[in-house]
Amino acid sequence: MITAVDEALLRRALALAARAVALGDAPYASLLAGPDGRVLAEAHNTVRRDDDITAHPELKLARWAARELDADTAAGTTLYTSCQPCGMCEGGIVRSGIGRVVYALSTEQLVALNPASGQWPSVVQEGPALPEEAGVPVASYYGGGDR
């Protein structure tokens, strides 16, 4: 359920997105807030400026949370973001332990405004090709064999 606090923090993320555009960056921004609504960190998209395809604000904040917050603290945070996170960012958010995401614009709505954003081709994946060999370093790292 979206609350008045959620809406206020989303509006802050949207203001950050507008500021990103003014700086010459893409119109995406996010912030991470604690359970009390206090903003812990903010970021905007710097893909072009940094020449880094991973410089999405959601992923930047997921990395920050993974480095700076313990698991219990991260689980109590909410990521407020101008657009629904892409698959790359969603994976980072899950791995970081962030507890909740609230977004202002869905992927479908983004594609309606910018059709090119929905034209990413799928990547062919093949495998598993060498599971026994690949399992050796993994089992060694995790301390065992049959689990």
Keywords:
single chain, 7 helices, 147 residues, alpha+beta
Structure description:
It is globular, with a radius of gyration of 18 Å. It is built from seven helices and four strands. The protein is of the alpha+beta class. The chain has a four-stranded mixed beta sheet with strand order 2-1-3-4. The chain has helices spanning 4-22, 47-50, 57-68, 71-75, 87-96, 107-113, 131-141; strands at residues 29-33, 39-44, 78-83, 100-105.
Order of helices and strands: HEEHHHEHEHH
Helix fraction, binned, reads 40-55%
| Distance from first to last alpha carbon | 39 Å
Radius of gyration: 18 Å
Estimated structural class: alpha+beta
Principal-axis shape equals globular
Note the total helix count.
Answer: 7
Total beta-strand segments? 4
If you average the pLDDT, what whole number results? 95
Main β-sheet: number of strands, strand sense, barrel status? Answer: 4 strands, mixed
What is the strand arrangement across the widest sheet?
2-1-3-4
Low-pLDDT runs? none
Tell me briefly what this model is.
By secondary structure, the protein is of the alpha+beta class. It is 46% helix and 16% strand.
